[in-house]
Amino acid sequence: MILNKQSQSTKFEKELRRVSEEHSLENVFNASITLLKKDYIYIAFRAVTKYNPHTIESYLYIRSGSRNKLINLSSEITKYGISKVADPKLFKMGGDDIYITFNTGYSKTKNEIFFSKVSYEEISAPVQCNYNERNSVEKNWAFFSHEESLYAIYSLNPLIILAADCQCSSVKAPEINFHKVFEQYLEGSPSLSIGTQLLKTSDNGEYLLLAHKKISLRKKRMYLGVLVKFDFQKLLTNEISSTITFGENYIFHSLKSLLGSRKKWNKHLFSCTYFSGLSQIDDSYILSYGVNDVNFGIKQIQQEDAHKNLLLER
Q1: Domain count along the chain
Q2: What digits encode the pLDDT tens for the residues 168-198?
Q3: Which of 37, 43, 82, 125 is the most exposed place for a label (fewest CB within 10 A)?
Q4: Could you tell me the CATH number of the domain that includes residue 54?
């Protein structure tokens, strides 16, 4: 699916471009949007300023009815002794509570994964997520809750599910520990990495997320999107073959974007449509993403068209 041809631009994309210009932000990329209502939106993203074009920072834009504000997450989070905010992504949990998860970027030794509850009024103290069998450098875990328990998809294939050692109501800074509750290699399924956080599509434990297919080209990587359906209820009833369904078509911004850009923040990147957000409004999905680390898109796709074009069963 080519988003520039098979989806609609959104007012949210236009709004973020306007806000970025008003605040002298450039190179805006990896947008992650979550909607509460049409007039209540949260968008996390990365950008540089005209005055400091060599340093990428993370931001959070919130519009709550008639109020709106832009928060420099990189500055805000340093209050808690965290040196870097990379790959910020938004998700809902426990109804209409909004959370943001991020990592502390590349490290030669070890980085960390955090999440914080966010609202117009405040950003709560970040909670560090620990798991004994984790990789030294982590990028994305996909968090969700079920019957007051907190879980995370750690890997898509093998499918690894983690559970927190405390209930959602007991989660608080500075850290929580996770343990593995499920692991199985899905034979015949693709090798994908987690992209967006989970979008809950029913009260029966059904979710969608956008994952990434990494393709090697000349010792560099190309990122393409794949729609994935996750059914936690099927996992609980041991229907493993129906727990996760992978879309069969790739999703990307445009044919031109596949060629990459001259400017490179990551020397190992050839090109990418890097999906950071998946939300829902009425009968449409809202996809938010970065393009080659230099631009972004926030596109709207009818749910029926998305499932049809991506060959994902409903």
Answers
A1: 1
A2: 888 888 999 999 999 999 988 899 999 999 9
A3: 37
A4: 2.115.10.20
